[in-house]
Amino acid sequence: MKLGTSSEPDMVEHRFPCTTCGADMRFDPAKGLLSCDHCGATEALDTSNARAPREMDFQAALSAQIPQQDMEETRVAQCPNCGAEVEFDADLHATECPFCATPVVTDTGAHRQIKPHGLLPFGLTEEAAHDAMSQWLGSLWFAPNGLKSYARKGRRMSGVYLPYWTFDAQTATQYRGERGDDYYTSHSVTRNGKRQTVRKRHTRWRAAAGRVSRFFDDVLVLASGALPRQFSEGLEPWDLSELEPYIPDYLAGFRATAYSVPLEDGYKDARDYMDRVILRDVKFDIGGDRQRVHDMDTAVSAVTFKHILLPIWMAAYKYRGKTYRFVVNGRTGRVQGERPYSAWKIAFAVLAGAIVAAVIGYIIAMNQ
Fold first, then answer.
1. CA distance 318 to 102
2. Residue 195 forms part of a structural domain
3. Residue 266: inside a domain, yes or no?
């Protein structure tokens, strides 16, 4: 097994008892405090053991040279529907999978993983997230009315921290290619009995070679397979300059998903992104009107990483036998989701378009 990985994402719901009444407290995004919904008591976050988010050496992690205090064990159970592994506290024996709304019963299993180094706390309340989702649904012209109504009636949304890897790296790339400079010639042609001047583009190619360098800072890679990539990318951007030290108090009342994408695989995704940016840099360095890149040799050094948690609000709705998922950026309110379509709305729109086209055609014919 690769370093610190399970087959699917794990999830834990963190609980903090109120010192006044014993009920569970939660982190209140609006107040920035722990708050008790039962008695109204509030408590400041415990920052006594907080450590600022820090970079860790990538090669040391691959060699399993990570300090003991940076590792943790998790206990998980697998969702019977979507396969996501939901992490449990010791006293929790059943819950609902936030990714597909399926009941999950515990089946203990332990996984050893790297602890988070930092997080972005929730900045949006559940009510604000629900409003953002409702507005997004309202903008979907062809969504079924029944689903819109069902979603707006207000089943609770789940606050979830998703795991991400971030990577820093220094790169230096030697390249070989060609620079193309365009030039034009003119000549006369006869078209429809008329002489016309036509310009034709040509490209003059010459060899090019050089070196480009770039430092990559916080290349972000989703470390969970439970959320489709188009969802996670659609929630960006994230202001990583606002990262806070990882302390459990921020997770009070929320769930935190453990990573299922191994560190090595996360780095491969990061390198794919880096290579695309480097190719763009090389083409810019070659210049001209067109570029051909034949070879790139990139040296990568000083690779470091962080394991961080980013907040989303999620709702999974079962409607007429199908599950629809909606996710909201827990900081900005940006919404992504599975777009359902109403067959009768589409048919009505097509029919209406045909009627309008027929009317326009009739008016044109009458005026001729």
1. 9
2. no
3. yes
